[in-house]
Amino acid sequence: MSAIHLETHQSRNIGWLRAAVLGANDGLISTSSLVVGVAAAQADRASVVVAALAGLVAGALSMAAGEYVSVSSQSDTEAADLAREQMELATQPEHELAELASIYVSRGLSPALATQVAVELTAHDALGAHARDELGIHDLTRARPVQAALASAAAFAVGAGLPVLFVFVASAEILTPVVFGSTMVALGGLGMLAAHLGGAPLWRGAARVTFWGAIAMVSTALIGKLVGSPV
After folding, report:
1. Over 90: is that where the pLDDT of 73 sits?
2. Are 12 and 142 in contact (CB under 8 A)?
3. pTM
């Protein structure tokens, strides 16, 4: 008897990974940019601390709210599609069976085998078969609003925590280069981690996040210099 072959696919991570990576990136980039911009305006230390903490709290809550609303809309759409499919299964079972069989024929099965597969899957779990093969709704990728909101908020707070930490421990003279440098390193690591979890090249993941992080921080630093007055 052959051993069972187990496979781990990266798609099982997509639900939480997208929200977590987006949250951590946003936390790092937006909070670091805020700190760099305010510091470049020659603000006093208290103003920089307030800006950093306010950015962390507001950003985390904003990310949570945005993810929850966005993913809830997706969840509502999925629920509406499933409800409609359930009604059609109850009122037009023959039509739905033929529809399922035609999907399998389009994927390469012979008509006879496609009909047999459709009959057996319908007997086992008709709604599940139509959800997967007609609607493209899978358990691994179903919309989970609360999970997405919590993951996004927590990841934002973790990402924003790095520049906030340096606001408290670094002197005013070195705050900007320390925040800039540490954020670039952290973004590179985060980009490589996300690429690794998603099965993509590490350098690509690191390059795309560090590029936009640098653009954001340089832009806010220039604004701070141009304004040149404390907050």
Report:
1. no
2. no
3. 0.67
Q: Is residue 183 predicted with pLDDT exceeding 50?
A: yes
**Whole-angstrom distance, CA of residue 172 vs CA of residue 104:** 66
Helix H or strand E encompassing 191: helix 175-198
CA distance 148 to 68: 7
Residue 205 near residue 194 (C-beta atoms within 8 A): yes
Cβ atoms of 128 and 96 closer than 8 Å = no
Q: Say how far apart CA 94 and CA 88 lie, in whole Å.
A: 10
Q: What span, in angstroms and rounded, lies between the C-alpha atoms of 204 and 192? A: 8
Only one residue has tokens 């099982």, namely: 12
Please report, in angstroms and rounded to a whole number, the separation of the first and last CA atoms in the chain: 72
Residue 192 contacts residue 210 (beta carbons within 8 Å): no
- Residue 54 makes CB contacts below 8 A (sequence gap 6+) with none
Cβ(25)–Cβ(209) below 8 Å: yes
* CA distances in angstroms from 17 to 13, 155, 184, 194, listed in the order given: 6, 10, 21, 8
Buried b (16+ CB within 10 A) or exposed e, 147-181: bbbbbbbbbbbbbbebbbebbeebeeeebbebbbe
Please give the structure tokens belonging to residue 81: 């599609």
Is residue 139 very low, low, confident or very high in pLDDT (cuts 50, 70, 90)?
low
What would the DSSP string read from start to end of 10-52? GGGGHHHHHHHHHHHHHHHHHHHHHHHHHHHTT--HHHHHHHH
